[in-house]
UniProtKB/TrEMBL annotation:
The entry's keywords: Aminotransferase, Decarboxylase, Lyase, Pyridoxal phosphate, Transferase
Protein name: Aspartate aminotransferase family protein
Lineage: Bacteria, Pseudomonadati, Bacteroidota, Cytophagia, Cytophagales
Family named by the database record: Belongs to the group II decarboxylase family.
Coiled coil regions, renumbered to chain: none
InterPro entries: Aromatic_deC, PyrdxlP-dep_de-COase, PyrdxlP-dep_Trfase, PyrdxlP-dep_Trfase_major, PyrdxlP-dep_Trfase_small, Pyridoxal-P_BS
SUPFAM superfamilies assigned: PLP-dependent transferases (SSF53383)
Keyword Chloroplast in annotation: no
UniProt source species: Marivirga lumbricoides
Cofactor: pyridoxal 5'-phosphate
Length: 469
């Protein structure tokens, strides 16, 4: 066990370790080059009965764990979507861990609730969202979308499904595009609608939902006796950051009185920059909105913001009032345990506060603008290169491309690009991942690290190009 003196000493050493790590992170291969089971077989089958020294723990951490880490913190990490954090955010997490606050109700740490109140307002204004919206910080977008589905379900049934179950209820239908994130599939299952009632609407040549096809699907469902309930529009899909036309979709959801949820998990960060607000045009007609600062707003995982228009419906859906949680302040404050599924909650607003204040709104805008500018630079290089081609538009900072020398059929191109990506990643200098668009194996490059520079982007392009020459 560590006493306070040990804690002080090891914490100082650890901060040095952390700063060294961040300084040298580019020396590690970005993608961990271990095989399945490599790490586990170095871990003893059983735990120690005796207390071990902190030095022993750190030694094993460096020897066993670190080689099995993929370095998300490297500016050469261009895979998936980033889980980009910043130094200000790490420092806030250290405080959060030290305080050990469990912020389930206001009384369990009034500052945790009230800072969250204010951060939800700051972020709403920073993103240009409607003034009347409110919400809370959750773990992930998957949870936010589940909240939206459950609230829509309860509101339409006058809060009776919570009480009585689905028996005798109409068959509700949920709509999203074919390119929507898989979390909606999971959430539809969990919310009890049944996956067969999730209708996937076709997309256009830019991978955005076609509103006419949405309306056609709704009409068809009405004719069949189904009850259309909920539409999820993607503001930035995961495969290609395609933007569903929220304004046109909202006209349809208003006409048929459906719940409109906007999944802006990733691209929501770009709304801090006014030039990107074309993506959210019509947002005031939505009923709910989810966005992850832990992806591209430099805040440690996890931090996902969920906003709703009708907060009373949200609270009616989730509220419980056991005797042991009642407090004298319940009428005057937000008790966020009633705003989502879990009871216990981390003090997540502190890191968001540190991030916004440490970068400043203008600092955040500058970095987001640069990332998008550099992604567009990369897009131009790909377009002028005779043996590479773009496979999707670049609304923000994700570039979808592949090698194509015009001499291979689609099947050959797919396996060639798969091999190309594997080789690049195994070399360890950069790390990218893939998707498929229109059946084409697509390499995804996304630059969202706060320390990313144009030089990193140019180097990445050199590495990619050199593979085929
Ligand atoms: C990442 C992502 C999600 C899911 O995110 P979690 O927070 O991990 O649940 C949902 N939608 C989109 C568009 C995403 O990019």
């Amino acid at each position: 066990m560590l006493n306070n003196e040990d804690f002080r000493k090891h914490a100082h050493d650890l901060v040095d370790w952390m700063a060294d790590y961040l300084e040298n992170v580019e020396d590690y291969p970005v993608m961990a080059s271990v095989k399945p089971g490599d790490i586990k077989k170095q871990l003893p089958l059983s735990f120690s009965e005796e207390s071990e020294s902190f030095e022993a723990l750190m030694q094993d951490f460096e020897k066993i764990i670190l080689p099995g880490i993929t370095h998300w913190e490297s500016p050469n990490f261009f895979a998936y979507f980033p889980a980009s954090k910043s130094k200000a955010s790490v420092l806030a997490e250290m405080i959060t861990a030290t305080l050990g606050v469990q912020g389930m109700v206001w009384l369990t740490s009034p500052a945790a609730t009230e800072l969250e109140d204010r951060m939800m307002e700051w972020m709403r204004d920073l993103l240009g969202l409607p003034q009347s919206w409110t919400g809370s910080i959750q773990d992930t977008a998957s949870s936010g979308t589940l909240n939206a589905l459950l609230t829509a379900r309860e509101k339409i049934s006058n809060f009776s499904i919570n009480q009585k179950g689905f028996g005798g209820m109409p068959v509700y239908r949920i709509y999203c595009s074919q390119e929507a994130h898989s979390s909606i599939d999971k959430d539809v299952k969990i919310a009890g609608f049944g996956l067969d009632n999730l209708v996937k609407i076709p997309v256009d040549e830019n991978f955005a939902m076609i509103p006419e096809r949405l309306e056609a699907a709704i009409s068809e469902d009405l004719q069949k006796g189904f009850h259309p309930l909920f539409v999820m529009a993607a503001m930035g899909t995961t495969s290609s950051t395609a933007v569903d036309p929220i304004e046109s979709i909202a006209k349809i959801t208003q006409k048929y009185k459906l719940w409109l949820h906007v999944d802006a998990a990733y691209s929501g960060a770009a709304l801090v920059v006014p030039e990107f607000r074309w993506m959210s045009a019509g947002i005031e007609k939505a009923d709910s909105f989810v966005f992850n600062p832990h992806k591209w707003l430099f805040t440690n995982f996890d931090c996902s913001l969920y906003y709703v228009k009708d907060v009373q419906a949200l609270k009616n859906t989730f509220s419980i009032m056991p005797e042991y949680l009642k407090t004298g302040a319940d009428e005057e404050v937000n008790n966020y345990r009633d705003w989502h599924i879990q009871l216990g909650r981390r003090f997540r607003s502190l890191k968001l506060w540190f991030v916004i204040r440490s970068f400043g709104a203008e600092g955040l805008r500058k970095i987001i603008r640069q990332h998008c500018e550099w992604a567009n630079w990369l897009k131009q290089q790909i377009e002028i290169h005779p043996e590479f081609e773009m496979l999707a538009p670049v609304p923000v900072n994700l570039v979808c491309f592949r090698f194509n020398n015009g001499k291979m059929n689609e099947q050959e191109l797919n396996s060639f690009n798969e091999k190309l990506l594997k080789q690049i990643n195994e070399e360890g200098k950069i790390f990218m991942t893939h998707t498929t668009l229109n059946g084409k194996y697509t390499i995804r490059w996304v630059g969202g690290h706060p320390d990313l520079t144009k030089a990193h982007v140019e180097r990445a392009w050199e590495i990619i190009k050199n593979y085929i020459s």
